[in-house]
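Late entry, written up from scratch paper. The run itself happened at the end of the previous shift, but nothing got recorded in the book at the time, so transcribing now.
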Amino acid sequence: MAEHVKGVTPSEIQYDGSGLRVAIVHARWNKVIIDALVNGAIAKLVERGVQQSNIVIQTVPGSFELPLAASKILAAGHVQAGANATDLLGGLQFGSSSPALSTPRIAGSQATGTLTNRPFDAIIAIGVLIKGSTMHFEYICDSVSHALMKLQMDSGVPVIFGVLTCLTDDQALERAGIGKGVNKGHNHGEDWGLAAVEMGSQCKKWGEGKF
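Output as recorded:
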C-alpha cells in the first residue's frame, strides 16, 4: 500500500499567538460540521497563546457571504483601532482656542491581553459546501475561493481558507473529525487555527522588514 502523504507538515517553529488578534467568520449551512470545525480552530488558537478576548467570531448564512463578511470584519478592526486612538487622546482639542483639557486615559488601562485597539492579524473563513444535483456547488466553490484569495492579496491580511468543498456528507464529516466510521477522520479546523497563528506572526515580522 502506498504511503499516505497528504496533510500539512507541522512547522518546526512553535509560533506564539499571544500578541495576535484573530477573527473567525463562519457560515451556518451544515451546522454540525461547522461547529466541529470552528471548535477545532479555536482550540488551536488558544493552544498557541491567542487570548479568548482576542478571538472574534461572526456568522453569516452561507459560504457565498463569507468574502463580503470577511472584508467588512477586517475593515471594522481598523475602525475600532481608529476609535480607540481617538479615545486615548482623552478629548484633546488640537487647534482649539480653549485651554480646557479633559484628563486623558492611561494607555494600557484596558484589560490585560485585550487587543481591541488594533486591526486583525488574520481571519479564518469557514464554510461547508457539499455537492448536490445541480451546478450550484461549482459556482459557489469557484466564486468564494477567488474572492477570499483576492481579499487576502488586496488587504495584506492572511485569510485562511476554511471552506470544505466535498462531494459527499461523509467526506465533510471526516474532514471535521466526526466521521461515522471507526476512523473519525481529522478536524481540519485545527490546521486552520495553526495556520492563522503562523501566518499572522509571519506577516507581522515581514511587515517590519524581518526574516
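Residues 22-88+115-207 form a domain with the Rossmann fold fold (CATH 3.40.50.960).
(Scratch paper discarded after transcription.)
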